């Protein structure tokens, strides 16, 4: 599962 | 959100405001690489396509809109309003040498093979090298207006601050890291080291930014 990469950074 | 990330984002915000201030007050975009600014627009547009699909927070949304809009406005100022003050003959870095390899890297390294994710990876790789035309220009002219160096310092500080942010997140978010963003971010920060050296030893001591011949 790669859901850790939510891209919440700018 | 942690203090490093917040300061990093504010530093990024500040860098753009400094650049706008420089262009407006001197009524000139002398010393600024149009190519670097055009690459930043490409970076922001390809990375922030998710504003249509993913809601993170009002903070996140507002910053994304600001980065896209302000950088487009800078391109407009350089290409239209203050066009005569921009000298393309010293802004000669070949951006295709950056775009090609970044596209290839994005096809090789991404988290999912979807248009949005590959473009996201592309934007991360491209951001890491987007400053090169600007640094190349600086190297060619050998000097810079003080305000331009403040712009670069704020931009470099933004990247540098993302590193402690990742370290903090690694320890507070159960060992999570984003290998693509971290690798590209380290490369990007490293590109500023030479600049920082001159900035700290000269500009902050009140001297002009001049590179040794």
UniProtKB/TrEMBL annotation, chain B:
One of its GO terms (biological process) is vesicle-mediated transport. Keywords: Endoplasmic reticulum, ER-Golgi transport, Membrane, Protein transport, Receptor, Transmembrane, Transmembrane helix, Transport. Its main location: endoplasmic reticulum. The chain crosses the membrane at residues 55-76, 97-113, 119-138, 150-168, 180-200. GO terms for molecular function: ER retention sequence binding. The keyword Endoplasmic reticulum applies. InterPro entries: ER_ret_rcpt (IPR000133). It is a multi-pass membrane protein. This is ER lumen protein-retaining receptor. Belongs to the ERD2 family. It comes from the Eukaryota. GO terms for cellular component: endoplasmic reticulum membrane. It is found in: Endoplasmic reticulum membrane.
């Amino acid at each position: 599962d790669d859901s850790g990469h939510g891209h919440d950074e700018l | 959100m942690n203090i490093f990330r917040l300061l990093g984002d504010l530093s990024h915000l500040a860098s753009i405001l400094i650049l706008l201030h420089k262009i407006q007050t001197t009524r000139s975009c002398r010393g600024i690489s149009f190519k670097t600014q055009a690459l930043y627009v490409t970076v922001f547009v390809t990375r922030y396509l998710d504003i249509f699909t993913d809601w993170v927070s009002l903070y996140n949304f507002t910053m994304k809109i600001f980065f896209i809009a302000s950088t487009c406005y800078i391109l407009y100022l350089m290409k239209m309003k203050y066009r005569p003050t921009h000298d393309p003959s010293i802004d000669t870095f070949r951006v295709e040498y950056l775009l090609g390899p970044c596209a290839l890297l994005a096809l090789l390294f991404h988290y999912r093979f979807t248009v949005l994710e590959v473009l996201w990876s592309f934007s991360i790789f491209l951001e890491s090298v987007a400053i090169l035309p600007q640094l190349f220009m600086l190297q060619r002219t050998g000097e810079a207006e003080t305000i331009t160096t403040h712009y670069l310092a704020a931009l470099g500080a933004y990247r540098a601050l993302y590193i402690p942010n990742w370290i903090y997140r690694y320890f507070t978010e159960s060992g999570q890291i984003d290998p693509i963003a971290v690798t590209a971010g380290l490369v990007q920060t490293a590109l500023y080291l030479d600049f920082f050296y001159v900035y700290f030893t000269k500009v902050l001591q009140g001297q002009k930014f001049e590179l040794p011949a």
